[in-house]
Amino acid sequence: MAWQTPAAIFLGPPAQELLRFIKDHMNKAHPFKSHLEKLQSTLESIIPKINEVHRLNALLTYLPRPDIERLKEELVKGKELVRKCGAVPSWNYFLMCRYSKGILKLNKDLRWFFNMEVTADIWLGNKQILVDLEEMMRKFERLNMRLEGSRSAPEIPEITYGLDVPLQELKMSLFRDDVRVLGLCSPGGCGKTTLASMLCRDRDVTSRFKNIYFLTVSSSPDFKVIVQKLLEQMFPTNPVPRFLTEGEAIMKLGNLMMRIEKEPTLLVLDDVWEDSVVRKFVFGTVNYKILVTSRTQCQVFDYKYSLKMLGDEDAMALFCNSAFPQNVNVNYEEPDRDLQNKIVRGCKGLPLALKVIGHSLHQQQAKVWQHTERMLSSCSIFKSHTDLLSCLGTSLDYLNENVQDCFMDLASFPEDERIPASSLIDIWVELYGIDEVDAYINLLELSTQNLVTLIEITSGDAGQIDGNLNGLFVTQHDLLRDLAIYRSQQKGTRLIMKSREESLPWKWSKEEHQFQNARLVSIQTGELSSSNCYSMHFPEAEVLILDFFATKYTLPQFIEKMEKLKVLIIANHGHYCTQLNYLTRPGYLSSLRRVSLEKVSVPMLNEIKMPLKDLQKISLLMCEVGQALGSYDLNFPYMLPNLVEINIDYCNDLVELPQGLCNLVHLQKLSITNCHNLFAMPEGIGSIRDLEVLRLHACTGLVELPNSIKKLQKLRFLDISECLNMERLPEGMGELNGLEKLDMRQCLGLRELPPSIMNLVHLKDVICDDETADLWEPLGWHLSKLKIVMREDSNLFWLGVDL
């Protein structure tokens, strides 16, 4: 990636030379002393910024910038100007005035340039470093997106119950000289992962171990992927190697462990189900420690620490915190204490049960509490896994049926993975005939009930009308995923692989008749080929999810028979884009309404050979799209006559959009975000007459927008935030009569607004930072509806950059 030239390369030496020259000639140019002192102060203040950009230059590649060349010339001329000041006679007021203006102008130019341009260079440099990191991550973590795929220890809840003593005991066990592999064991839902995360952040632990790595293993581990995730954490800026075999991964792991044995290292393996996985991490006498969280005892453990259930006091405190949250101020009469005690005792001190069941009873009538108590008293949580799921299932019984269905759909995605909220909403809109707002409300309800956890790693606007869902993700506890699978099996309208396998389950081909009513089919495999695909028929299937780790993948043959297929989600969790092998007759695509692809090499639309007349939404994440969009003669309106939304995120090979895309006159939302090599928008963009939302967030290669944008009379929201090189807005910007919201944070290259901006009388919200707010504040008296919304970019705080 090539970026702009940092000022330090060219400006450092002449700035230092000028500073020395001023100090040497200050007394000779006495009439100009006050001006020269200001210039001296400015030069001294910019030296740290020059040094910072020097540091970044060691990491990044840059291209020349003419404005830096011009300023370099001014610095060189400044030295000559100071020399002339020392030779001006006291009577020559004309030269004194002329040279004073020259000093003041140079001082002003330096201050502006180093407050704006060099700050932008530093920000841009840090931004680019982060972008490079993200390209190697397994699953998006946007700038303050924590490094994806190579996940560090999960966040700790604000309040924990009953874990302080276990933390001290676990720490003492870890520090024992005779313990190399420490097991942290308990049934699911007891808080093992939370306790392990607390340990990783404990001051005594971080001071003892120089390196701490946290890896989630899960019930269907792929050892090659686990080693890749470890490599990402160890060397986040290096390319991740491909392992063709598990033997290669084991050899690489052994080399890694030998390299770090001189540095105290703690490796946490979370959610381990198989003893064999841990054994692969134990190498001879290599000196590092391993903490393993598991539901069962592994023979490889040197010592096992058993996490007990919560005591009565902590159990009641956790339950009450969920059932009667303190921040909710309503007139609500709590059930009698005896009933509360019975329900808490029925949860047997299991934190997950106390939390989920407690929240499900929040503000419920007495009969609901009584029913829950009867259910808990009739089964023992630890008698069997089914009994545990039945007890947890009481938290679903009083939810709206539609919300219950949405909960069960969560089982369609792999365990211990972040689920894109946009994928869930696509499914719910098509399966249940609801709009996106209601689907989002259902997601919030599941979060409120502690049945899922929402993680938002963008600007926090996902819930707004024009909000961006690209940065909103969902996670779910393994036990709750088991509950979703358990409930969905009872209903029989979903076919879901419980865990990832190399190929389709053999029994599917023998039990095809059981799947005739499945409306949702979810397949989780490795590299799928035609040899391990079965010919089955799903006549009612409307949603197909293909989730895999592979560099090559063959679409299963039964897709051809999915006449009702509306939603297709293809998610590749490998480190490189996958090549899809297609079927000879792709007629199944004709009924599709929503398509989502992740880490896929998108083929040319010409290969489909038939119009996708029902397709309304396309989402592409970290895909290779250059081939698909490289056909400039493609008839987009014929191929995609009803397309209303396009989302393209982190597609690094996107350089330009074909002009033909502008013929999609029914397109309403166009979102192109984090595509840093996109250098221009097509001139004909003004032809998309129905466009309401245009989002170009963090397209750092864009310098300007075409003036034809003024024709977008229905445009309500324009997002150009973090378009760092955007130098100007279109002259016809003021003709956007429908524009209500503009996001232009971190548009560091914008120095002025076009005069026509005064005509945006319907503009309500402009989202700014300190720099861009200065451009808008003088307009407040004229644009009566205008509200300047200040919002800092959280990515800068993650980077530790103080601008």
Automatic annotation (TrEMBL):
Q: Cite the RPW8 domain residue spans from the record.
A: 1-152
An example GO BP is: defense response
Q: Which InterPro entries match?
A: Apaf_helical, LRR_dom_sf, LRR_R13L4/SHOC2-like, NB-ARC, P-loop_NTPase, Powdery_mildew-R_dom, WH-like_DNA-bd_sf
What molecular function does GO assign, one term? Answer: ADP binding
This protein's UniProt keywords: Plant defense, Repeat
What superkingdom does the record give? Eukaryota
Protein family: Belongs to the disease resistance NB-LRR family.
Q: What is the protein name given in its UniProt record?
A: RPW8 domain-containing protein
